[in-house]
Each structure stands twice: as structure tokens, then as C-alpha cells.
Amino acid sequence: MTKNITELIRPAIRNIRPYSSARDEFDAENHSMIFLDANENPFQNGLNRYPDPGQRRLKERLAELRSLKEDQILMGNGSDEVLDLIVKLFCEPGKDAIMVLPPTYGMYEVIANVNVVDVERVPLDMKFQPDVEAILEAATEQVKIIFLCSPNNPSGNTMNADGIEKLLNGFNGIVVIDEAYIEFSRSESWLKKLKTYPNLIVTQTFSKAFGMAGIRLGMCYADEEIIRIMSGIKFPYNVNQATQEKALDVLGNMKIIESQVQTILGERDLLIDELSQISFITKVFPSDANFLLVRTDDADLRYSQLIENGIVVRNRNGLANCENCLRITIGTPKENTILIQTLKSLE
Ligand SMILES: *Cc1c(COP(=O)(O)O)cnc(C)c1O
Cβ(79) to ligand 1 under 6 A? Predict the structure, then answer.
């Protein structure tokens, strides 16, 4: 990492003047004021005011929880919005590229395509680990961002820390680590390394362990300068009032989440054991996430048989190194029992 971080940001965006919204200038939570500035309906119903565009209360709580500064956090409508903002910030349409390591989360490519940004692919090795040398070799000037997903979807494994460190040191661009499943992992989050590596961006989400996929809330943690400029290009009211309130409720009650995660981890161990005994399952891949990737004799067949029995899993056959693989989310204890019974009945 030799370049200055702001030099990596697209010139057109580096100097943009953000829209200053009414609720940027005055916070509607100050009840001593009369708000006649945003053309809202004045009659209170709990949602008649525009939400806080900076999600200050939420960031305050998250900063405390993660031992970070509020200026290192940006929130979006799911991590999908956050990932889109990252591509917009660093990649010039029709010129620049991102790098992905298949098999991985499909949204990185979709977001690149929508933004007219090229995609370089360097497949993960047979153990679903990054091939650091091949990545650095393929990382031309055009490549501005490398997307790492750790734990990786769909393989479920965490990526080796020394490999990631080599990429953070050796790549002259941004390294995004998507930690959507970090709460289920034995490995530590990379959040602690944000100060060491200004080119590191970590994303997390309320959609998985936090049990809040329905509210659409994702987080981006990065260098203050990146966050400042990214905050200027997001839509002002991208995180709605109901979402901000619900998220604060969840953060105020982390015990429930922690206990659910423990249950899921216990079920993961049980499922690994039982799935390994199913005759047509030839491999259960190690997992640091709330799902298991399994190799079967015939993924298309087993997938449709499960559907016929009322169970929906994800068919990952056709992805790199995922021949005949199904991705199975860990359900409730009852759901998992039914899954195993059903698989046994198909033997
Ligand atoms: C589920 C998932 C997300 C979450 O996306 P949201 O938009 O926050 O719901 C992000 N990254 C990966 C790899 C995922 O599997």
C-alpha cells in the first residue's frame, strides 16, 4: 500500500458537493423547535418526520460496541447498497475493474456490471483459500478493488489471515472484506486492523446473525476519509426511521442474539455429524458460517427431491469448484431434524 487513500477515489467524486438536506441542518429529535423546513406533514404519527440522514444514535451505539469512532462507520440499505457505494467511489465506469475470487457472493459482479465496471476473476484454490500470488499478478492498474468474503459464501470457510495480510500489504488498491457471517466464525473480525491498513474496508450486516434481514441494514467500516466522501454520495435518507429504531432495539438486547448464535453453532455441529452419514453426501465442507456446503452424488436431483418434500436449499452446482454442491442454511432444531429425516428417506 503506497498510494494515498484519497488518490484512489475517482476524481469526479473526490470533489463532489453533497446535497445538504433539511434534516442535515436540523435534527427533528430536538423537540424544542418548530419544524417548518422539510415540507413534512406536521401531525405526529411516529414516522411523519424524515429520518436522521447520519443515523447518529445508531452509529454511536455501534461505535461503542465495536470500539471504533463514529466517523469510521457508514450505514446503508443492506450491505448491498454499501457494496454499490464502494464500487461507485473507486471505479471509473468503462475504465476500471474489480477482482472477485469465485466461488463467492454473486452481488459483487452484478454491482460491477450495473456500474459498467470490469470484473477480473481469480478462483479460490481447492480449499477455498485465496491464491495470493495469482491475485497480485492479475491485479493490473485497472483493478481498484479486491472483494474478499470471509467467511465465504457459499463455501463457508474463513480465509487465512496471513494471505489477507499479504494482499493488504501487496495490493495498491482497496481490499474489501465482507464479514456478513463473522458472528458465526471462530476467527476474529478485521475491524481491529482498520487503523493499520487505510486501504481496508470491512462490511457487516443486520441480515444474518442479527436476525433482521427484513429491515435492510448494512454497515461499512473504513478510514474516516473514505467514510466522509462516501457519506456525501449516498442518498440522504437511505436508512429509514423504522429501520433505525428497530436496529437500536436489537443492539440494546444483544443477549438474545448471542444465545441464538450459540444455538445455531450447536446445530451446525450436529448437522455436520448427521449429514456426513447420509450415503449420497460425499463431503461436508468445514464451516465458519450459519450454513453448510455439501457435495452430493447429484445436486440437481437431490435439490428437486428436497423441494418435493417441502424443503428449499440452494443449489450451487455450476459454481467454480462446487460441482454437485448444495448450500444448506442451519435452521431451528426442529427444521434440522426434519431435514435429516427427509434426507434419510431419500437414501
Ligand atoms: C447475505 C449476505 C450479505 C447481506 O446482504 P444484505 O444486503 O446486508 O442483506 C452480504 N454479503 C454476503 C456474502 C452475504 O451472503
Answer: yes
pTM of the predicted protein model:
0.96
Tens of pLDDT, residue by residue, the chain (347 residues): 545 888 999 999 988 887 777 777 777 677 788 999 999 999 999 999 999 999 999 999 999 999 999 999 999 999 999 999 999 999 999 999 999 999 999 999 999 999 999 999 999 999 999 999 999 999 999 999 999 999 999 999 999 999 999 999 999 999 999 999 999 999 999 999 999 999 999 999 999 999 999 999 999 999 999 999 999 999 999 999 999 999 999 999 999 999 999 999 999 999 999 999 999 999 999 999 999 999 999 999 999 999 999 999 999 999 999 999 999 999 999 999 999 999 999 99
Sheet (strand 281-284) strand order: 281-284, 291-296, 325-329, 314-315
Go through 282-315 and write b for each residue having 16 or more CB atoms within 10 A of its CB, e for each that does not: eebbebbbbbbbbbbeebeebbebbeeeebebeb
Q: Is 153 in the pocket of ligand 1 (CB under 6 A)?
A: yes
DSSP characters over 44-95: -SSSSSPP-TT-HHHHHHHHHHHT--GGGEEEESHHHHHHHHHHHHH--TTT
Distance 32 CA to ligand 1 centre (A): 40
User: Rounded to whole angstroms, how far apart are CA atoms 321 and 316?
Assistant: 10
Q: Ligand 1 in contact with 290 (CB < 6 A)?
A: no
Report CA-CA distances (Å) from 128 to 148, 156, 281, 295.
11, 9, 19, 14
Grid cell in block for residue 243:
429501520
Nearest alpha carbon, ligand 1 atom 11: 180
CA distance 29 to 99: 43
Q: Of ligand 1's atoms, which has the minimum distance to the CA of residue 105?
A: 13
Distance 40 CA to ligand 1 centre (A): 33
* Burial category of 220 from C-beta neighbours within 10 Å (exposed 0-12, middle 13-18, buried 19 and up): buried
**Residue 73 alpha carbon to ligand 1 centre in Å:** 17
The answer to whether 218 touches 82, Cβ cutoff 8 Å, is yes
Residue whose CA is closest, atom 12 of ligand 1?
Answer: 180
